[in-house]
Amino acid sequence: MFNAVVVENQEGAKQAHYRELSDDQLPAGSVTVAVSHSTLNYKDALCITSRSPIARHFPMIPGIDFVGVVQRSEDSRYREGDSVLLNGWGVGESHWGGLSQKARVSADWLIPLPQGMTPHNAMAIGTAGYTSMLSLIALERAGLKPDAGPVLVTGANGGVGSIAVALLAARGYEVIASTGRLDEADHLVRLGATEVIDRNTLSTPGKPLGKERWTAAIDSVGSHTLANVCAQTKADGWVAACGLAQGMDFPATVAPFILRGVSLLGINSVTRPYAERVEAWARLNAELDLSVLEQLTREVPLSEVIPVADDLLAGKIRGRLVVDTSV
């Protein structure tokens, strides 16, 4: 038996409950994991509150990432007692996810927990930090270097944005942080931002081309924000698009791309090949200051996840929420 957050659809009414389940209710998969920690991400909160159709079927256990210890394995790559982590692959959407004390998944979706990384820190990083690193890797492979000019990070107080600020600053980049919470500017400066701007300057309809302000950007917001970010990116610069906090739409023109040579890089953190996932996590393990994680992280027990989801969607949460499944 184990406890989990379960979203159910009862005659069209979707509601989340914290309840006990039996092992024989776990879905198909080659590896069963005793989950020690998960996270509460924006997408998880949408699923729990049913404000967006995240779950593909019901009942669904949300949680797009988790870390834990292999309890049973039918795959030679993993043995009982191995520490593993998972990001993406549709868990928490089409397959039962990590807001649970147990999970059963395909071995193909797992990677080993990096040497020396604690389960708590792995989930303090979570999908948000992993996505930030994938964005940074994509920008650097495209040609970005620390001396190329400022890099904008939108949604800088969120999970993806805050870790992106810290990662960029640690590598010597000049970071411009965009946020809707200017009262948190000092916090962003401590993470490494050299300038903090109001998100309202980017979140409303703008011109097809604006003043060139940054060489590159990591955007987790989408919609008008992403359009304006592209319009104000310097010639031959790059924008990594990795989120949709403002919306899925992209009300832009081709002007930044054909008149300035701006490149828009799409970041898919869900189905990356094994080698790319291992590389991203190895870099996170090596480059992210653990003291930064402490600034960014709040831990909540699994039993209290449901009410906290509303706070996350209301913008009341700064940084990352780590879920301890033992309580």
Brief overview, please?
This protein is of the alpha/beta class. The protein is built from nine helices and 15 strands. The longest helix is centred in the middle third of the chain and has 24 residues, at 119-142.
Can you describe this structure?
The protein has 327 residues and is α/β, with parallel strands linked by helices. Helix 2 (119-142) packs across helix 3 (159-170). The protein folds into two domains: 2-113 and 292-324, Quinone Oxidoreductase, Chain A, domain 1 (Alpha-Beta Complex), CATH 3.90.180.10; 127-266, Rossmann fold. Strands 3, 4, 5, 6, 7, 14 and 15 form a seven-stranded mixed sheet that branches. It has helices at residues 42-49, 119-142, 159-170, 185-191, 223-231, 255-259, 274-287, 290-296, 305-313; strands at 2-10, 13-21, 31-39, 65-73, 83-87, 102-105, 110-112, 151-153, 175-179, 195-198, 214-219, 233-241, 263-266, 297-301, 320-324.
Query: Residue ranges: pLDDT <50 for 5 or more in a row?
Result: none
Name the CATH superfamily classification of the largest domain: Medium-chain alcohol dehydrogenases, catalytic domain
Largest sheet: 7 strands, mixed
Q: If classified by CATH, what would the architecture of the largest domain be?
A: Alpha-Beta Complex
Mean pLDDT: 95
Organism: Pseudomonas putida (Arthrobacter siderocapsulatus)
Protein name: Oxidoreductase
InterPro entries: Acrylyl-CoA_reductase_AcuI, ADH-like_C, ADH-like_N, ER, GroES-like_sf, NAD(P)-bd_dom_sf, Zn-ADH-like_protein
Domain Enoyl reductase (ER): 12-323
